[in-house]
Each structure stands twice: as C-alpha cells, then as structure tokens.
Amino acid sequence: MTSAAAITRAYPGAASVASQVVSLGRELGADPAWIANVIQFESRWNPQAVNRFSGASGLIQFMPATAKGLGTTVEAIRTMTAAQQWPYVRAYFSRFRGRLRSQADVFMAVFYPAAVGKGPGYRFSAKVSAVNPGIFTAGDYARKALRVARLPTSSPPPAVVSSPTSSPGERRGGGGLARRRRTLRISLGVGAAAFALIAIAAVVARRRMR
User: How far does CA 205 lie from the centroid of its chain?
Assistant: First the structure.
C-alpha cells in the first residue's frame, strides 16, 4: 500500500493530509495512490481550484449540488485549506466503500459515479461526451487523467478496514471475523459428527466380534 511519505514526495501539496489519504484508502479498500492521483487530476492539489464553467471547486472539484448534499457550499469550500476540506472528501468517498477496485473506479467515483465498476468500455451519453471532447468511454477518461499521475496505479486493492465511524456490525475485510467464526462453528460441527460416526462404527464392530 502506498505510504504517506510516497504521496508527499509525488505531490508536495498533499503534505497536510497525506496520512489521511492513506487512512481513507484503507477504509475504502483502495490504494491511497489512486485517491492521490484523482486529486492531482481534478485540482493539482489546490484546495481553492475552481472550474470557471461549472463552478466545481476544491480538491475533488465538488459540484454545487454535491457540496450542498454534504452540508456545505462551493463558496465555503473555496475558503478552506486541504485539511479543512478533508472531512468532506472523506464523506464523499465513503459511499463507495468496498467498490473501488481500480484506479479507473476512483476516477469514475468523482467524474461519473454510475460508471464505477463498469470497466473501461463503459460508454458515456452523447451529452457527457459533448462537454468533454474526446471522452467517449471510461477508458478514455482514465487515460487522460493518468497523463498527470505521478504514483503507480497497478497495486492490487487492499482489504477494506472498518473506519472509526463504522457500524458495530462491520468488521475488517468486509465481515472477515464473522466469516471466520462461522467457519469455526462449521468445523466444530463437522468434527463432532465425525467423532459420533467413529464411535458408532466401533460399537457395531465390537458387536460383530462377539
């Protein structure tokens, strides 16, 4: 998994939140490099970045409606540092927990959430392509975004780790502890059944020998 130090070396602007990028990656089950790379593409790590056409603002270019849904506004976001914006970045990505299995998925989580998990061949509508020249598929977008990436994108996705705000029923690895407990119970049950069969067979054998 990409370290905070590696993120800071690649993107000095990430220094104040590099450790939080790593933490978020663990919570999501995504390599932190993927998150760092998408922020590089969206804002070059400038927390005051603004798209003059859409009004999208901040590290991941929050749209006005998205900012409102997170309990803030793009006007407020433009006044925040990277550290101050981070709770909103984390809240935005939290809905994709366990679903971001590649760098392309992270790009799509920000650009076009409906395409997450659909693969590089996912085709955008004519309307989307019209305002994004040359972008017809998720693969087209990923290739464009990767031109400015400075961190490797081929790391396998790590296991999802419960965040401090996870519900009590959530466990590391998407329920791994619960699965291990079920497996143990099944193993014990199978063992008990096997022991009973052996005992019955021994009784039958003794009777035949009489």
Answer: 59
Q: What are 2-36's pLDDT values in tens digits?
A: 999 999 999 999 999 999 999 999 999 999 999 99
**Residue 200 CA, distance from chain mean position:** 53
- Kindly report, residue by residue over 148-200, the tens digit of the pLDDT: 999 998 766 667 766 554 433 333 333 444 444 444 344 434 344 443 443 43
141 touches 148 (CB < 8 A): no
Q: Is the pTM of this model over 0.70?
A: yes
Q: Give the whole-angstrom CA distance, residue 141 versus residue 111.
A: 9
For residue 57, what are the β-bridge partners?
A: 50, 62
Sequence-distant (6+) residues with CB within 8 A of 138 are 104, 107, 108, 112, 115, 118, 119, 120, 121, 122, 124
DSSP output for 72-86: --HHHHTT--HHHHH
108 three-state secondary structure:
helix
Around 102, how many Cα atoms within 13 Å sit in the side-chain half-sphere?
A: 13
Q: What angle, rounded to 10 degrees, do the helices at 32-43 and 103-111 form?
A: 40
Other CB atoms within a 10 A radius of the CB of residue 197 amount to 10
Q: How far is 89 from 16, CA to CA, in rounded Å?
A: 14
